[in-house]
Amino acid sequence: MNQRASKILVFRIGSLGDTIVALPAFEEIRRQHPTSKITLLSNRDLSNPERVFAAQVVENNGIFDDYLAYPSNAAGTKLSKELIKLTLEIRSRKYDLLYYLPPRVRTLSQQKRDKLFFRLCGIKAFLGFESYKNRFLDLETTPKYVSVEKEADFLLSCIEGSLKGKADDSASTTFGETPDAIPKISLSNEEIRQAVERIKYSGVKEGSLLIAVCPGAKWQSKIWPIENYIFVIRALITDFDITPLIFGDRTEREIGERLIKDLGRGVNYAGCLTIRESASVISKTTLYLGNDTGTMHLAAAVGVPCVAVFASIDWVGRWHPAGIGHTVFRTKVDCEVCMLSECPFDNLCMKKIDAESVLQACRERLSGLR
């Protein structure tokens, strides 16, 4: 049945980072179903409500044939109407199979609700539910001080376990046993050419050593003090004559402007580029320095080493950038794995991260280029 499915729906919602870490799982689904019509059900892009957010990440790579929008940002009556509309749309398409790849903190009640929803949509065959069920992360029962496998590895192992016909009891729950899944974003020659032109016309001196910087984040609890970024980048300007390129969305443009004003150099691309345009420009940089954001995963996916500053709000290792050559800073605090977007303790875990240590990590990476 799974191999013969002609119409497949893949459920994966979340932000930019959630989409990027799911790329290896997406690719495995396409490999298993080379001739099937595969649709991704994901979030709407808030800046363009007519477009599915994740489509910007995976466009032109041959994984998905179509996209559907999940109304995760609607509320109340509007949400009910949106869900009814979505249910009817999915039913009309008559999907043979659903791949279930939700965020890893979906509770048992949410999982049951999801399965009921997709049954109402007329889908009878599911992959992913059983592999996911006993391996999701639970705030009440999962120990908070353990390292967990990376999200990309977890998603791929759920897919592989389901495809082999083995559910939770046969899928490994020992962290690290699944081979590393490395999300990669392939850029076209034209995208690279445009990135080079974009950097040139931004006034950056030819031959400059470029670093990508993301000093903001959607969650206030994930933001390292801007004074620390100024300290680190100013020292790197002195030592290596680097030029910082600032990334982020429109809400992070202001912090980018302040950073450049204090440093006296740099280009602020925050809120000015599409996801793939950002990936193309970042691919021309030597290093990513910034918070735990989708931009960090974007940098890792185009092969740029990351020096990343992590809040202690999630399990250790879950969102570490995939691949080699990365350095992650994270501190231990009593309140870790809080999952709070707003910190009630003045971002204590972030403020405990020493700027001098982060600077040294950047120096070690850049010194190898001399």
Describe the structure.
This protein has 370 residues and is of the alpha/beta class. Helix content is 38%, strand content 15%. It has 14 helices and twelve strands. The chain has helices at residues 16-21, 23-32, 55-58, 76-93, 108-120, 129-133, 151-163, 189-201, 226-240, 253-263, 275-282, 294-301, 348-351, 355-367; strands at 7-11, 37-45, 48-52, 66-70, 97-100, 126-127, 209-214, 242-246, 267-268, 287-291, 306-309, 327-329. Strands 1, 2, 3, 4, 5 and 6 form a six-stranded mixed sheet that branches. Strand 8 (242-246), helix 10 and strand 9 form a beta-alpha-beta unit. Helix 9 (226-240) packs across helix 10. The protein is globular. Mean pLDDT is 88; it is low at 166-179.
Topology:
Blueprint: E1 7-11, H1 16-21, H2 23-32, E2 37-45, E3 48-52, H3 55-58, E4 66-70, H4 76-93, E5 97-100, H5 108-120, E6 126-127, H6 129-133, H7 151-163, H8 189-201, E7 209-214, H9 226-240, E8 242-246, H10 253-263, E9 267-268, H11 275-282, E10 287-291, H12 294-301, E11 306-309, E12 327-329, H13 348-351, H14 355-367
Parallel strand pairs: 1-2, 1-5, 2-4, 5-6, 7-8, 7-10, 8-9, 10-11, 11-12
Antiparallel strand pairs: 2-3
- How many E-type strands? 12
Number of helical segments? 14
Q: What structural class do helix, strand and pairing data support?
A: alpha/beta
Strand content: 5-15%
Please give the largest β-sheet: 6 strands, mixed
Oligomer: single chain
Task: List the uncertain runs.
Answer: 166-179
Shape: globular
Helix coverage percent: 25-40%
Rounded average pLDDT? 88
